[in-house]
Amino acid sequence: MPVRSTIMDTNSFRAEHAEALPADIRRLTQRRSDVLGESYRLFYREPVHLVKGQGQYLWDAEGKQYLDVYNNVASIGHCHPAVIAAVHDQMQKLNTHTRYLHERILDYTDELLATLPAEIDRAMYMCTGSEANDLAMRVAYAYSGGTGIIVSQEAYHGTSYLTSGASPALGSGQPLAPTTRLVSPPDRYRVDAEDLGAWFANEIQRQIDDLAAHGIKFAGFLADSIFSSDGVLPGPPGVLKQAIDVVHANGGIFIADEVQPGFARTGDAFWGFARHGVVPDVVTTGKPMGNGIPVSGLLAKREVLAAFSDQVPYFNTFGGNPVAMAAAQAVLTTIKEENLQAHSQKVGAKVLAELAALQKTHECVGDVRGAGLFIGFELVSERQNKTPDKALALDVIEALRQERVLTSVAGPHGNVLKLRPPLAFQEADIDWLVGALDRCLTRLGR
């Protein structure tokens, strides 16, 4: 039997839950299984039937309102009017592919590159983060002449053939590529190291050496700088710098997967990697870029991208289409006009402080960490030994669902609540989130 996927199966509906469901929900889950097959997963023992969203809120088919504390797809808020207007306007004019001239893709690219270090001056567009990371791996192969890719222990980078082979979070049912190596993440809570950055750099070097010992040339290090699937590990600012120096010293490139920490999410900087004072060779983006419209991108240093693009033509039918670019442009404009980076930093700090206060009354709260509106809330059965408590985390997730707060879990043990609301989340929502969590932990006797 394959090991369950940490990101797909930990907080999911399973067939044994069906008998306890209301009749209408049971019919929908059965119908879904009948026509969509068995690969898909639903959240919760009692799945939520959502029909409407606005900002940080969602509503189900019965009209119940929920607080969304998980969704970074609608990064600036569900059904944001600026995105709706931009998409509607462009759809009425033209939507086609990138083999015709169109100003929209060029104007957006100029604006997007202006948010990045000057060394990163080229862009390519796709539809999903999986496609962006897949292309980034191909670029790494072309530039380095190698195929060895290092990722973190519970990384998730996509569902394509290449990216699934570098996504251990998908579980053992999806085998890793023989050219993939895993590195323990810089977990300040669990790693006892005087210099966490030096410790992590050494871990990277160990895996590069292992690749070489097996006759595999190192190509690159692919990482989400907040290590979200590993349990949301922002680490101290700068913790990645020594590791990236090691990557470059060994002829590889650093691919910053910014699908989750990018676009003002971490508050400290527009891009997650910028918290660490490093300049990636390639940056990939996805879901938050279009606020629900499928669009993704690869941004790179010209000399790195040239190793691939000067040799291989690339075409993505829907990547960079005018409607997707209109959505992306509206997102970027909204982040600037609504000052969402500063908002994420300010509100995120208040959420973090309120959640940390729960440690005083609930012994099961082992650690609270985060950057901006991206927070990990780790639950343990024994605080001194930091023993992960997956069962409690799953019970808390279900209890929060009854309090109409939606989130999920992360980490190799499934014991970290992954709190990542749309950037529309406000200070007024903190009481709903923290109060619900407090009540749930109290009810569960923890």
Automatic annotation (TrEMBL):
Keyword Metal-binding: no
PROSITE patterns in the cross-refs: AA_TRANSFER_CLASS_3 (PS00600)
Coiled coil segments of this chain: none
Gene Ontology molecular-function annotations: transaminase activity
InterPro entries: Aminotrans_3 (IPR005814), Aminotrans_3_PPA_site (IPR049704), PyrdxlP-dep_Trfase (IPR015424), PyrdxlP-dep_Trfase_major (IPR015421), PyrdxlP-dep_Trfase_small (IPR015422)
Cofactor: pyridoxal 5'-phosphate
Keyword vocabulary terms for this entry: Aminotransferase, Pyridoxal phosphate, Transferase
Family (UniProt): Belongs to the class-III pyridoxal-phosphate-dependent aminotransferase family.
Protein name per the record: Aspartate aminotransferase family protein
Lineage of the organism: Bacteria, Pseudomonadati, Pseudomonadota, Gammaproteobacteria, Oceanospirillales
